[in-house]
Amino acid sequence: MASAVIFLCFFFFLLCTSHAANDTQANFLNCFLEATGGSSSSPSMIYTPNDTSNFATLYRSSIQNLRFLSSGAETPSFLILPSVAHDAQAAVLCGRLHGVRLRVRSGGHDYEGLSYVSFISTDEPFAVLDLSDLRSIDVDAEARTAWVGAGATVGEVYYHVAAASTTAAFPAGVCTTVGVGGQFSGGGIGSLQRKYGVSADNIVDAELVNAEGELLTRETMGEDLFWAIRGGGAANFGVVVAYKLRLVPVPPQLTLFSVSRTLEEGATRLLHSWQSIAPRVADDLWLRTIALAVGEAPVNRTIQVIFQGLFLGPRRGMLEAINKSFPELGVRAEDCNELSWVETALSLDGHSLNDTSVLLDRRPVYNSSFKGKSDFVRKPISEKAWEGIWEVMMEGEEEPLAMILEPWGGRLWEIEDDAIAFPHRKGNLYNIQYFMRWFETQTEVTERHLTWMRRLYDYMTPHVSSNPRAAYLNYKDIDLGISTEEGRTSYKEASAWGSIYFLHNFEKLAKVKARVDPDNYFWNEQGIPPFAAW
């Protein structure tokens, strides 16, 4: 506590003695180095483009979507790698003092790159606060809790939890290289969500640096802010440096299966049935689908639907559950694998089962560009409508596009939609993620892919939620709208995307923002502004 007081007193001294700066960047750099004990000749954790080799390597190390390297977006003037929370406090206070905004990057999977680029061209510099060195994980197997640095990846969490206990788990996503800082604060859907809810439902504490540079916990930040950072995108309100997770029980043996069906094998009929079945089966069974347009377009392209199931129990229980609720799928004993929880995480992310250390590898699986969008479905889509969707998917001349359908129901329907900021609860049958990946880097190729993605999204309009057409924050989509004036987004303007991501929770989020960051220091093009009724 004494060190925190001394730290803040130092900054109040700087605030009182600073004078008008001729060089914003130099002043910010000197301020940060003084506060963290570095020197201008040997900055150990802050880098500028002048340090061409280190800056470029570190900046690109967490960029998962390569289209932003050639998009013309603005890149940062500083890259900061904090090793302790004190460094993040210094970045915030020096940034506010000298007019340098921060973008917070955990794993670099932001779908629109807003954690490391800016679409607004201004003379004001910005810094990327890369949390990848804040990834310590401390698991208390007896208490069933874990403190996790916000720079850790989902895979690192899975690895350390499994190493501490074979019967403990944490509900999070399938992609193991995603950083927890973004995923958990936006919700965090995954294979355990029907049993235990999303990641954010299982966060019990956090450490956050607010706009005043204070390091707060749940006790000191207030319940409204703690509510907001669980589903509202924590980077809108400050810098979360660590989360305390409530671990959940799993049996020592789980069962995983994956079966594929073509249109000729009745995929359309099965998918139509799946829509009503998957949200209502026993909570121990998660059953998602992935629809793919495969083959060369247009003559040889067809549709393949993959059904993936995870059951919290042995093979016999899986077969009993699936044959009772969905016998027409025809799952056989040989389709099922009995695995530990961590092995199911490896399998779902496409890894072999013999080396869990692969979960510690932060490098992206693909070196590519991609685009994602999302929808929520509240009424089953008819077989005839699916046939029309398949026609659109097969007409595309671009790389195959996937539709990933995640089932709702279970615990997601039991938790109130305003219990935390993540609002997508009862009434939703499933979520759709539209995802397209490509490997060419030319601008015209990127635009062609984006146009094709938008065409399918527009076609889906009558089949998905409406008024508003909801979307999932972690599948960020700037097609929904962006602010074009740095730091001056109005509540009305932000409602274009805020009401879509957060539904009726958006107003409360904006009111929390007004309390904790009234000057909107933590601004981005699709952020939450302070509430004002104008």
UniProtKB/TrEMBL annotation:
FAD-binding PCMH-type domain segment(s): 71-250
Cross-referenced Pfam families: BBE, FAD_binding_4
Record keywords: FAD, Flavoprotein, Glycoprotein, Signal
Signal peptide positions (record): 1-20
GO MF annotation: an example: oxidoreductase activity
Family according to the record: Belongs to the oxygen-dependent FAD-linked oxidoreductase family.
PANTHER family: OS08G0158400 PROTEIN (PTHR32448)
The name this protein goes by in its record: FAD-binding PCMH-type domain-containing protein
Species in which this protein is naturally found: Zingiber officinale
